[in-house]
Amino acid sequence: MTRLDRIPAGACYAVLAVAAGLARAPLLANQFHSIDEASYFAQAGRLHSLDAFIYAYLYRTETKTQVAVVPYLLAQLLAPAQAVLWVQIFALVAILVSGALLIAAAGRWLGSPVIGLLAALIWIPFLEVGPGYPLPGLDPAEAFPAPLLEYWQAPCVLAAGYLALRAAASRTPRRAALGWGLAGLAWAVAVLIKPPALVLAPLLLAAPWALRIATPARTYLRNAAAFGGGALLPVAAVFGPYLPRPDTWAELRFNLVDVNTAYAEVVPLPLRAAAMLLAFPPLLLLGWVAAPVLARRAAAGGPGRLLAGIWLAGPVFFAGLLPGGGFAHYIIPLIPFVALATVGYGWWWLRGVAAAGRPRRAGALAAVLLGAYLLAQAPALLAMPAPLAADTYLAGDRRRFDLAGLVAYIQAHSAPTDAIWVYYNTPELYTLAARRPATRMPNNEYLIAYWREPWFSRTAADLAAEQPALLIGITDPRYARAWVTPLPAIPVVQDVIARLYRCDAGAVRGAVICTRTR
Q1: d(CA 220, CA 473)
Q2: Which value, in Å, is the radius of gyration of the alpha carbons in the chain?
Q3: Which pLDDT tens digit goes with each residue over 131-166?
Q4: Long-range interactions of 495-502: CB distance < 8 A, separation 24+
Q5: What is the DSSP letter of 211?
Q6: Global pTM exceeds 0.85
């Protein structure tokens, strides 16, 4: 392990850049991979003004994306025709930032930057293929390569941890307070992206204990206040504008309380936990469970408490994720903590083996462990370029309906400034046709999933108020649900359609198109 100890941080950053660049190169194309990705573009398409962004909860239902939708909004503003590619570029930057934080933290507090590099190299393949083995109902080409909300949350969570540790180690009161404030800000942004990061606050505030730094109670309270003040800034920026506007309070409450409560009903709790546990690479999960036992003596002292805190962040963060839907990609920001703890404990365990006079055995064990993990991931990684090159996401659309013909029809029968409404589970049409989405729920995911009030009345009210130029109904949609009806027969909504629109099921194969009559 001595030779690896001498590898400088600069070399680790260079390896990270090369590895991330090579891994993500096949993804740097202007193509969709996930319905979530297309949905975020649709939500960003609603925010066509600063006022709409500030009061975002009046314009869409997905509460967790007011901050995370920014990359998609920026991509649409920078290059509308290449927006998907630009989001992939932003995702690569987020991965590089996350990996750099792992390397910096490991070099500063865990004994070697190589520990952080190895953790990053474990995480990067997961972003493409997930656990590396088939899971029922999971398509890795859709669930992982697309830059989902977790891509943007990961660097924020890691930055919060890194800044908290730096602040705890600072000997300058003002610098420490500033560091704690920045840590609170990064943590709050992570929470605004997805609320499960909320549970990490106690671990962040325990940074002085993890570094074994004695902190007087008054100083600790001052630093905790700085953390809270930093966290308050983004929260105030997001929710503050609503306070002087009582007319917005009902919609804000609906998004924050009613929608999130309904979302948690989708999957039973045991199934959520099982689905996310199965999404872990098996060897990584096994190593994470076994590592503290193997290294309980070798990791004592210096990095011991910090490793314990990083290790504990795994189950704490996992528990915070359980109220959600339990999808495999939810653990994307969790994997860096698991990988860092596993590699860190393994590193100190192997150092103990080498220090006991068996350096060759330590080197052989390290090679076997790393090789086994990479070999387990290799088949999935080698198979991934094929579905990426085949553009399987839009290929599915082309099988179900005339995608090119429908996009051409939309563009021929509406103006670039017009809005349209797409029903259902085909939000990529908004981006492909370059038309604004209509209604506060342009993806109609809650309407379809729950098929009950208030979603019927809300959708009908929005359509009556906005009167988009076209209503598009996909006859054979992605993720079809048995209980839904065709577009002209949606309860309550059908009254608005009958009054304001004329529908045609023969204009484009696989679609019903309703045109405004006046």
Answers
A1: 58
A2: 25
A3: 988 887 777 878 888 999 999 999 999 999 999 999
A4: 495/460, 496/460, 496/463, 496/464, 497/463, 497/471, 500/463, 500/464, 500/467, 501/471
A5: T
A6: yes
